[in-house]
């Protein structure tokens, strides 16, 4: 059975996220993968969880599950 929650976000990715949020950017390039990752604030501005497994999904676990996400991030308090 797969884990119920995704692995924690790494320190470098969290720093890149926080810097992007501070600059008002919608995302950043993940230091490990080089992929563009949307910030929690940009995802919240969309006003719904898409269920795609976004790294910084700001929505509670029950909303993520209802949107079809098989593994969820820990609740963020949105």
Question: Which ranges are low-confidence, i.e. pLDDT below 50, for 5 or more consecutive residues?
Answer: none
Instruction: Indicate the mean pLDDT.
Output: 87
Radius of gyration equals 12 Å
| Largest beta sheet: strand ordering | 1-2
Helix content: 25-40%
Q: Strand portion, in percent?
A: 5-15%
Strand elements, count? 2
User: What's the tally of helices?
Assistant: 3
SS content category: alpha+beta
- Tell me the overall shape: globular
Task: Describe the sheet with the most strands.
Answer: 2 strands, antiparallel
What this model shows, in words?
31% of the residues lie in helices and 8% in strands. With 78 residues, the protein is an alpha+beta fold. A two-stranded antiparallel ribbon has the order 1-2. It is globular. The mean pLDDT is 87.
Report a brief summary of the structure:
This protein is an alpha+beta fold and 78 residues long. The protein has helices spanning 11-22, 40-45, 61-66; strands at 27-29, 36-38.
Topology:
Blueprint: H1 11-22, E1 27-29, E2 36-38, H2 40-45, H3 61-66
Antiparallel strand pairs: 1-2
Which keywords apply here?
78 residues; alpha+beta; two-stranded antiparallel sheet; 31% helix; 8% strand
């Amino acid at each position: 059975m797969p884990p119920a929650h995704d692995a924690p976000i790494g320190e470098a990715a969290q720093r890149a996220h926080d810097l992007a949020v501070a600059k008002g950017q919608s995302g950043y390039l993940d230091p490990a993968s080089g992929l563009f990752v949307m910030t929690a604030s940009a995802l919240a501005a969309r006003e719904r969880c898409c269920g795609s497994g976004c790294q910084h999904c700001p929505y509670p676990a029950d909303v993520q599950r209802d949107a079809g996400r098989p593994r969820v991030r820990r609740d963020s308090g949105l």
